[in-house]
Amino acid sequence: MALKIAIGGDHAGFQLKEIIKSKLESEGYFIEDFGPFSDQSVDYPDFVHPVANSVENGEYNFGILICGSGNGVAMTANKHKGIRAAVCWNEMLAKLARAHNNANILCLAGRFLDDELAMEIVDIFLKTNFDGGRHIKRIKKIIDF
Question: What number of CA atoms fall less than 13 Å from residue 141's CA on the CB side?
Fold first, then answer.
């Protein structure tokens, strides 16, 4: 069964969102696009909260959020108790976000990543498993705070 991915962001992330969405769909992932649907200026929380809710409630396996820096979408998503959103700008950060932090939303900087690197980051994030072990107690401390 293909992973279900919720994707969204803001106007600064629109072009990269479209590229990621197309590539993941061609690889067999089920993608739900929560918007925006153009590069016209929007407020990212309007799109982040629905993505975060859908991951938090288990409707989607992962989320991908893209804004100019990745920070705004991450801050918004992390307001949700069941979300661990990570800003990743290289492959190792994506791997560690999944392996050590069990991140469930990947946040990308649309203004600072080229398309090829962004896709490598997405691929690693989606294919890396949580290591568990010593990391479980740390994740519980985040969740149970």
Answer: 6
> Active-site residue among 11, 49, 100, 135?
100
Report the alpha-carbon distance of residue 3 to residue 128 in Å, rounded.
13
Give the CATH number for residue 104.
3.40.1400.10
pLDDT digit string (tens) for the chain, length 145 residues: 689 999 999 999 999 999 999 999 999 999 999 999 999 999 999 999 999 999 999 999 999 999 999 999 999 999 999 999 999 999 999 999 999 999 999 999 999 999 999 999 999 999 999 988 899 999 888 887 6
Mark whether 100 is an active-site residue.
yes
**Active-site pick, 49, 67, 88, 135:** 67
Does 67 participate in catalysis according to the annotation? yes
Q: Which residues pair with 31 in a beta bridge?
A: 5
Number of independent structural domains in the chain: 1
Residue whose token pair is 């294919």: 127
Give CA–CA dist 45/56, Å, rounded. 16
